[in-house]
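USER:
I would value a second opinion on how I read folds in token form. Give me a protein, with the fold worked out from its sequence. Write it directly below this note and I will take it from there.

ASSISTANT:
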Amino acid sequence: MLLVLAVDLDDDLGRKTGIETPVLGRENVEEAATKLATADPEDSDVNVLFQAIHTRDELEREGEEVAVAAVTGVDASDVKANRAVGEEVDTVLAALSTGENVRAIVITDGAQDESVLPVIRSRVPIDGLRRVVVRQAQDLESIYYTIKQVLGDKETRGTLLVPLGVLLLVYPLVLVANAFDVAGFSVLGVLSGLLGLYTLFRGLGLEDAIDETAEEVRQLLYAGRVTLITYVVAIALVAIGGWQGYQSILTNAPTVPLPTQAAVFVHAAVGWFAAAGVTSSLGQVTDEYLDGEFRWRYLNAPFYVLAISVVLNAVSGFFLPGDDAMLITDLALALTAGTLLGVLSTLTFAIAENRFPAAPETA
């Protein structure tokens, strides 16, 4: 048995005429088509309904056992609309009450309604598809639907429209720049650079990494993580230390060889870097304690940072130019102190963890 299905995905039939769907039977479908044509003569679904009747009559004259029905979705998202169409197809198939295998011929008015074909095919085999459009505008709805899909897709929209928008802004921004006595080529260069950075950003797929980082920061804010504050402070301390090291080179060693300049930089900046490391590690230890996952060995981190900073300060001080250089005996003492600090902290917290476990061991 053949079933001619007229598909109205956005439920123009139900919304404009008040007819309950699905509509089954030639007379009922014809009545529904007439009411829809009266309510809105320009609606393309009118043609779909009459085409379904016409197809049904042709098949009947050829000796086929055939039925006709109209099914509709809802005026909402494609997922909801497709689901509604599937439910109505189930209702139609249950109403046919035939023991024969039913095959369908689907009638639609364009590409948008055809998105429901997989839903229909999951319920009944499809023998044919007929798209009904006005002859004077064969591809109008398909073009409209394609543009709508492109603009509705977030990824495609960002990829196409953002560069296009930047290009369209070039001329008006150059005019504005000229009005304020700013070189138009400067504006053009800035826009070209921004467009290049955006293209590189999209091409490398960095948007996912940025989104993940933003989500992690948001979770840290909502969870009240101390590390968020300590990381910000640590970044500021590193920046200050880098600036101090640079200024120290300009002041004390502008003409010395590069290795000596490196020693001057490290000697001036290492204290700030150590402060940044201690700050961030203490923030991490605090969060671990608040989460109930604290271990004594976590306290090694700030002591390791201090030990490393003592060693770096001493080594860089030994290579300073002129009278500022550290004596070999002082270097030996500093290296010994740094080593002892790391070893003692490791032993101390290992003993503390064995005697005073912070949390029960998991099996």
About this structure: The beta strands are 2-8, 23-24, 66-72, 103-108, 126-131. The chain has a mean pLDDT of 82. Residues 214-355 form one domain.
